[in-house]
Amino acid sequence: MALDYPALLDELRTESSRLVALLDGLDAEDWDIATPSPGWSVRDQVSHLAYFDDAANDAIRTPSRFRIDAAELMKDGMGFPDMIAARYRPVTSVDLLAWFVRARHGLLDTFAEAGPRDRAPWYGPDMSVASSVTARLMETWAHGQDIYDALNAVHPSSPGLRSIAHLGVSTFAFVHTLNGRQVPTAPVRIDLIAPESQEVWSWGPRDADNTVSGPAEDFALVVTQRRHIADTALSVTGPVAESWMEIAQAFAGAPGPGRVPTEIAATHSGGTR
Predict the structure, then answer these.
(1) In the chain, helix, strand, coil percent, each to 5?
(2) Other beta carbons within 10 Å of 262
(3) Which of 2, 109, 8 is nearest to 60 (CA)?
(4) N or C, which end of the chain has less CB nearby within 10 Å?
(5) Handedness of CA 56, 58, 61, 67 (dihedral sign)
(6) Distance (Å, rounded) from C-alpha 105 to C-alpha 210?
(7) Under a CB-based contact definition with an 8 Å cutoff, are residues 145 and 152 in contact?
């Protein structure tokens, strides 16, 4: 998938503006509605996005300071997202929305000024600026999905869906290593159907024995751990593909626990940030 950096930035701008419009229409009490991520309300999802927008901005503009702050944050392990959520719960909904809007606008300006192949530190290996944009797009879409779900609102089809799916495919080796598994040598063919055009987006060799196919949005929901694969229309064939879909994770950090199927969710908690 060739990089179109201006288009990637536009995808992030669109996803951002849609989420801000949804949040701007909420009453104060709506910010305390529980989301599918256990223990997290709407406000926690927003503070998470705002905090890491500021962090991504610092990583590009002041990488030495970012490395110091990141080391301090990670000194007790990778559970810091819950700590950050708790820290900002006293902030009013008005101030939270203003923070998110300010942080996102600042980050978009930084992305526009930076070169897509410039490198920046993160909570793990350094990454390119283009990868940072894709990661923020994926995070916005995934945490936004939790907000849309909590509010029983329809999440509009994202122009960035292919970029998110590509990130899910490209983290194949990463997620196996993250979970202490040997990276499979057998390839997987992925054929995903775009939601509006019905165009098919494909990765991997046509003759692969292991395959994943179905709606692109369902694939994105699985690799961001927002849905259990049993609650999607994805078709998965072959042991490598089946094992991958059990642990698929497009985001950095510790291995996510995923989501439980809907028939179990009513009586069991589970999920991922």
Answers:
(1) 55, 10, 35
(2) 11
(3) 109
(4) N
(5) negative
(6) 41
(7) no
Helices (H), 114-250: 129-150, 161-170, 172-178, 216-223, 239-247
Could you tell me the two tokens for 146? 């939790």
Does the reported pTM lie above 0.90?
Answer: yes
Query: If you ran DSSP here, which 8-state letter would residue 32 be given?
Result: G
Residue with tokens 């179990």: 264
Per-residue pLDDT reduced to its tens digit, 33-55: 999 999 999 999 999 999 999 99
- H or E stretch including 203? strand 200-203
Read off the tokens for 140. Answer: 């916005």
Side chain identity at residue 141, one-letter code: W
With tokens 């990463």, the residue in question is: 174
**Residue 195, Cβ neighbours under 10 Å: how many?**
15
Mind listing the pLDDT tens digit for each residue in 198-242?
999 999 999 999 999 999 999 999 999 999 999 999 999 999 999
Contact between 144 and 154 (Cβ < 8 Å): no
Instruction: Output 216-219 pairs: Cβ under 8 A, ≥24 positions apart.
Output: 216/161, 216/162, 216/165, 216/192, 217/157, 217/161, 219/165, 219/168, 219/190, 219/192
Q: How far apart are CA 8 and CA 132, in angstroms?
A: 11
